[in-house]
Amino acid sequence: MPSALTDRPARPLRIGAVTYLNTVPLVRGLQSLLPAAEISFDFPSRLADNLAAGRLDVALAPCIELARHPEWSIISTACIGCRGPVLSVKLLFRRPPAEVATLALDEGSRTSAVLAQILLADQFGVRPKLQLLPLASSPLDSTADAVLVIGDRAIRAPATGFCQSWDLGAEWTSATGLPFVFAVWAARPGLDEPELEPALDAARDHGLRDLESIATEQSAAMDLPRPLVLQYLRDNLNFFLDDAARRGLDLYFQRAAALGLISDQLELRFHDCHVKR
């Protein structure tokens, strides 16, 4: 029988997932695997803020936030990444990259915002002044020399109004030979949830087996060609945090630290889920 200190019902596990097409395979069937969990959806930057504020227990968080919150743990091999062109993270240029003095960053982005700065600095020695591209704004609304867009609106990025476009996944892998990881399942300091890791991995595996159905559903919902949606999910994205992806993540943190974009390098924490809610 619960004691007086523990007789309140345990609140549900609060999981936050990204509200983009790239996340659909990761959460396919997750609610049935964790029926008591509360699963919500938001933009990556907001998920990070909510996890930091204690409003979530687990979130599909931007990788750069691991450097800002070293107490967080990576709790699954499921991730959002790429091994080449990613299609949904683009840097649009009004001026040649070497001449960029101002950079507008998608308000929903954290990881890609730092990646764009790394690539500009490493390739051209450019350190532009930063501006914000609000979530409700079009890239065409910004007057910056370069504009970063991520997620579904990057897939629909305008074909006119810019002189050049970078796919940041392609730029990273071309420069480093390594995969890139945009987001991982991260948990606040410790959780007594032994079923969480296998559920997140199983949801991903289920989603990957169901890509044909997902492509059919999402192409209709988003008014995008089905072949494009299927190609994006099947060929552009990588959902496994394997050794190569971890090496890419380590290099990303090294470059960010070298440019002063994070305070220092860090040692990633895995599966540290022991503190009860």
Automatic annotation (TrEMBL):
A single BP term in Gene Ontology: menaquinone biosynthetic process
GO molecular function: hydro-lyase activity
Record key words, sorted: Lyase, Menaquinone biosynthesis
Reaction(s) this enzyme catalyzes, per UniProt: chorismate = 3-[(1-carboxyvinyl)-oxy]benzoate + H2O
Listed pathway(s): Quinol/quinone metabolism; menaquinone biosynthesis
InterPro entries noted in UniProt: Menaquinone_biosynth (IPR003773), MqnA (IPR030868)
Enzyme Commission no: 4.2.1.151
Family statement drawn from the similarity comment of this UniProt entry: Belongs to the MqnA/MqnD family. MqnA subfamily.
Role this protein plays: Catalyzes the dehydration of chorismate into 3-[(1-carboxyvinyl)oxy]benzoate, a step in the biosynthesis of menaquinone (MK, vitamin K2).
Official protein name in the record: Chorismate dehydratase
Source organism per UniProt: Lacipirellula limnantheis
